[in-house]
Every structure is written in C-alpha cells, then in structure tokens.
Amino acid sequence: METVIAFLIIFGALVFFHELGHFIFAKRAGILCREFAIGFGPKVFSMKKGETTYTIRLLPLGGFVRMAGEDPEMIDVKRGQVVGLLFHSDGKVKKVIVNHKDEYEDAKIIEVERADFERGLYIEGYENEDDRLQRFELSDPAYIVIDREEVQIAPYDRQFGSKTLGQRAMAIFAGPLMNFILALVIFIVIGLLQGYPVDKPIVGELTEDGAARQAGLKQGDIVISIDGQPMSSWTDVVTMIRKSPEKPLQFQVKRNGQMIDLTVTPEKKTIEGETIGLIGVYGPMEKSVVGAIKQGALETYYWTKEIIVGLGHLLTGKFSFDMLSGPVGIAVSTHKVAQSGVYYLMKWGAILSINLGIINLLPLPALDGGRLTFFAIEALRGKPIDRQKEGIVHFIGFALLMLLMLVVTWNDIQKFFL
C-alpha cells in the first residue's frame, strides 16, 4: 500500500505540473480551458471553478488540458432546429437549450434561422411561424446546454487556433518545460535539506562498522595527507583508499586545530569484478542557498544528458526494447527506492520528471513534440497544415502510443511477477 501511495503521489505530481504548464500559458494567451484533468477514463472527482472543470479520472496514465478549439467545437445549432433561450437582465442570451427544453419554464422557444457562435455571437430565429425574424445577441460568457450539461461557448478569439504561432507553441512547450523546472526545484530542495556533496578533503558521515570509525576518524576531520601524499580534494582521498585494499594507510588529519596521526586499513571489496578498498565513510556535504541552486542545475543537466544518451542507445540498438519500463516497472522501482529513504525518493521523482519532459519533446504524433513539429512546419510553410489531417495523424499516433504502453506493461508484468 505504501508503494501504491508513493507511486500515485509521484506520478500524480509529475502529471499535475506538466499539465499546469500547459494550463498557465494557455490562460495567459486568453484560451478558454474547458477541463484540467489528471488521468484518463471515467471521472472519479470533478469540481468546476471559473471557466474550468478540474477532474481526477480513473486511469493514472497521464492527463490533459482541454482547450477550446483544439478539437472541433461541440456546438452545432442548425437552421430549422428548435431551441430554448434564457436571458440575462440586459436582454442578451446566457444559455441556449438544445434539448429537454420543457424543463426550463422561462425559456423562450424559437426555430433557428441562423446562428454564429464564433465571430458574430448571435442567434436568429422565429418564435412563431407568423412572427418576424428576431435576432438575439449572446452574452459573455454564454453557454449551450446539451443533455443537461452546460458547455461554455468559445468565441473565436478564445480558441486555440486564433492565437499566434508563438502563443500556441509556448502553450504546448510549457508542459515539458514545467517538468524540467520541477526537477530543478526538487534537486534544490534536496540540497537545502540534506546538503550537497563538495570535493573537499573532509570526512563526512561514517558507517557504524567501517574501518574509519574503528581507527578513530571522526566526521569533520580535515585530511591533510595519506602516506605522506597531500590531499587537496575528496577525489584524492577516495582514489588513494580505493587502490589500497588491506594496506595500512597513515592518515594525518586536522581536528579542532590540532594535527592527529591515525592508521586506517581499508577493507577489501569486489564490485563488478574490480577489487577496491573501502573504509566506511561518506564524502563531505555542505548547505547553502547558492550552492544548492548550483548543484540543482548541475544535477538537472547531468540527468537530462544521461536520459538523452540512453534514448540514443535505444535507437541504435545498444539497449534492447525489453529494457523499457511502463507504469508497472516504475511502480516496482519506486518501491525499491522508497526503502532507501525520502531523499532518494525525491531524487527518483526528479529523474522521472526529466524523463517525462524529454519523452514528451520527442517529435512523435500525439506527444507535445509532435505538436511542436507541426508548428515548425507551419512556420516554414507560412500557413498551418489542415487541422483535419493533423488530427488524423495525432489520433493514429495516440493509438500506437497506447499499444506501446500495453506491450511495455505486459513486459513489466512478465519481468517482475511471472
């Protein structure tokens, strides 16, 4: 249960901040965001605030921000259709009732002659056959009611497609960008709370049964020399210890201003076929705001580079397809990492966030990178690609992505449970 909770919190946070990036920049561009969803499938929780409905859905496999105009608008009122109208006090239409009109006693019933819900923002029709044509202006906001569900009408200037290429690209790019920012913030927080490693010849935390503690070394000791060789960094100390298994080493350390000589004999350990010496001591850690920010940036850069290199190995065949993991594999790994402590779990979350950002930037249909690729083509052509054709490409890409997810999940189940 703890593993499930840890997985849901981490994965939910990654998806939330990813979608939050889309949401913030879409709102800044003036796009109507109809829904902010975590997960897919049936709704588990729903709450409407302002123009947006916030939902949690059953399948924790991602999320989405539904922007007006990204998909064909659901509003379709045709000539000859009978609808009901509800009005504001200023006489403008606040709701257009498509069906179940008898449930709205105050509704004015008209037969539609023409309607423009995008640019003109009006509806015209006849209340009775012998009446003259009446024109009604739509209020801002106005809603269309279908099957008792209200959908806010989005004028063209509130739709995704009406925005500049830069605004649309930023609204899409902001999702992966937020994942990198989240990782950076997590690494900074770890640095502030736990500290960050520094390459200084200072003894860090000691293990309970290591050779260092038995020889009398203490945390905070400054290593001046080992076997007469001056130590200028922690890297120098580690190098000397690793190459001296079961060899007594003469440490000269500075403790509280006094010089102390100690003999430490590294234990012999074999790791991945290599025999090295260990004394049971960790490297030095420091805490500072500036240092934590610097370390956070370095960690974010390092893991971004490692994940990109890993993807390159996958494409060139150096990594096999079986090495990919989906939600099941991530959950199993989360369980293992959680046993090591909260800081390791935080770091794991940051690495997953970077991974999510990079994957979403791949130029594949249905991913943010695929959308950005179409924007790049639009910039080169000077005009957008036909939306229907682009939609078909993304739909096929999404179907293939779901198929890949099923295959990877089955591989995970076989790997860990069968």
From TrEMBL:
The Gene Ontology biological process terms listed for this entry are:
proteolysis
| Keyword Secreted in record | no
Which residue ranges does UniProt annotate as crossing the membrane?
6-25, 169-193, 342-362, 391-410
Needed co-factor(s): Zn(2+)
* Domain PDZ residues, every copy: 195-268
GO cellular component terms, alphabetically, are: membrane
MF terms from GO for this chain are:
metal ion binding; metalloendopeptidase activity
Q: Does the keyword Disulfide bond apply?
A: no
Give the subcellular location: Membrane
**What's in the keyword line of the UniProt record?**
Hydrolase, Membrane, Metal-binding, Metalloprotease, Protease, Transmembrane, Transmembrane helix, Zinc
Give the membrane topology: Multi-pass membrane protein
The protein's enzyme class: hydrolase
Instruction: Name the EC number(s).
Output: 3.4.24.-
Record-stated family: Belongs to the peptidase M50B family.
Xref: PANTHER family = MEMBRANE METALLOPROTEASE ARASP2, CHLOROPLASTIC-RELATED, REGULATOR OF SIGMA-E PROTEASE RSEP
| Name assigned to this protein | Zinc metalloprotease
The organism that produces this protein has a lineage beginning with:
Bacteria, Bacillati, Bacillota, Bacilli, Bacillales
